[in-house]
Write a structure and sequence with these properties.
Elements lengths: L2 E6 L4 H12 L10 E8 L5 E3 L2 E5 L7 H15 L4 E6 L6 H8 L20
Parallel strand pairs: 1-2, 1-5, 2-4
Antiparallel strand pairs: 3-4
């Protein structure tokens, strides 16, 4: 199962510290066919993947979280093959073995979307 973790991140010190802990813990031990991509806004007019960080054309503001998420998901859909996409944040910790057992349940064999639905101020 190919899982992409799209982890929303900002560059303030608290979130940066959380990101570093993720890099040192669960994100460093996922299977080779899965991937962690940290999502950040930028002032550029195009999305750019640099190593494990995706910069999308969206100012790094709390009010732009949904827009940043949509831009990140759009980039992932257009550029990667995967089975499961999980959009999460830097304060979340995953036990991949446990997550894998859950995601292998028959419930997830069809198209599935889950989570909180929100509105955006973007297009």
């Amino acid at each position: 199962m190919r899982v992409i973790f799209l982890v929303i991140a900002s560059q303030d010190p608290v979130h940066q510290a959380d990101l570093e802990v993720q890099r040192l813990t669960w994100a460093s031990s996922i299977p080779s066919d899965s991937r962690v991509i940290w999502l950040r806004g930028s002032e550029s007019s195009v999305a750019k993947l640099s190593d494990c960080t995706l910069y999308v054309p969206c100012l790094e503001l709390y009010t732009n979280i949904l827009e940043k998420t949509i831009l990140g998901i759009r980039f992932i859909l257009e550029n990667f093959d995967f089975d499961i996409l999980i959009r999460t944040n830097v304060s979340t910790y995953f036990d991949f073995d446990r997550l894998s057992r859950e995601l292998n349940r028959k419930f997830y064999t069809e198209s599935f979307v889950g989570g909180y639905i929100d509105k955006t101020n973007g297009k």
